[in-house]
Amino acid sequence: MLGLNGTPFQPATLQLTGIPGMHTGQAWVALIFCFLYFISIAGNLSILALVIREPPLHQPMYYFLSMLSLNDLGVSLSTLPTVLATFCFNYRHVGFDACLVQMFFIHTFSFMESGILLAMSFDRFVAICDPLRYSTVLTNSRILAMGLGILAKSFTTLFPFPFLVKRLPFCKGNVLHHSYCLHPDLMKVACGDIHVNNIYGLFVVIFTYGVDSVFILLSYALILRAVLVIASHEQRLKALNTCISHICAVLAFYVPIIAVSMIHRFWKSAPAVVHVMMSNVYLFVPPMLNPIIYSVKTKEIRRGMLKVFHKSQT
Asked: Per the database record, which ranges form the G-protein coupled receptors family 1 profile domain (predicted)?
């Protein structure tokens, strides 16, 4: 956008976009998003309440699960205001500064999720490879320190993002490609030198997703080596079964990220709706799936939920 003197400037508001090419059927899309939000928020709140009220769940594994649920709530609540405003009320404008705040929280919670999944893989590594020291290694104070460390790492690495965007002029319009604010989307409508933003963004992605995913793979390589040493086939399956929920959560988080990256880099001519839908999957699916995965695959969580359900029936 150009100012009165012909120079680029920052717009007072940015215009959000629904699903490209969908001029009808927005009510159905709004209903789907409301359903996804309901499942995500209700499911993660249920996990948190269950871990708090059930003493048998006061263990490291479930403390990390609580961190994951709390973070997934953050992801959902970060996108909820603009998504519902866009699809339910057809209100597509967001203030420039408000957009930067939303961008910061969306990316911060996303990077925190990667760190939490890494911490959960370390939990499974200690539980299987060194079970006798499990309670002494993963004490409450260390778990709290790990959680605060993940928060500090994500916050400090993402803190420069709003300021890096704020310094840029905008001369390519004010229409974004999603119903929420993301850093790559803002870069598409910015002009001027965005090399610093791109380089720092790549550094943050490698420093978080890249490093975390490598250590998660390393953890499971060590877990697999330890499991293969176990003589009993039944014991091997039992040990691996304790990792199924976490593996599913890792796949639900990293597969959409990889898919988005692959489409962005190798299928740039893809229809806009493909990019938008994949970005929606990346942000909406993990918070919705994680409570379902752990409720179905984790016996203790399932028992706790059945116990609460039976109490409510009596």
From this structure: 43-294
